[in-house]
Amino acid sequence: MTVLIDPPNWPGPRGLMWSHLVSDHSLEELHAFAVRLGVPERAFDRDHYDVPETVHARAVALGAEAVGSQELLRRLVAAGLRRRKRRPQPR
């Protein structure tokens, strides 16, 4: 049971770089960690939270495991928690 965070490699709002925060156990674990971290619910996107670079060190201090983006995705998929975007159906 681990919450994972990847490096802030993704450009986003406010000129900041962003990380993904996921659980390799359950969405409940992820949501509870996000509350402890002070991340708003609106930052949740299907299977992860998008968090700014300013939160990365605090997430690790609270117990998130810092991993590379590929490792984060591998463990998310292995846990069966990956939720892909749905593609629009052709008409």
Polypeptide structure, described:
The protein is an alpha+beta fold. Helices cover 33% and strands 23% of the residues. Strand 2 and strand 3 form a beta hairpin. The radius of gyration is 13 Å and the shape is globular.
Question: Which keywords apply here?
Answer:
globular, single chain, alpha+beta, DUF4031, 3 helices, six-stranded mixed beta sheet, about 90 residues, DUF4031 domain-containing protein
Estimate the helix proportion, in percent: 25-40%
Radius of gyration: 13 Å
- The end-to-end span amounts to 42 Å
Averaging pLDDT over every residue, what do you get?
93
Order of helices and strands: EEEHEEHEH
Structural class: alpha+beta
Report the count of strand segments: 6
Characterize the biggest β-sheet.
6 strands, mixed
- Beta-strand content estimate: 15-25%
The outline comes out as globular
Low-confidence stretches: none
Number of helical regions: 3
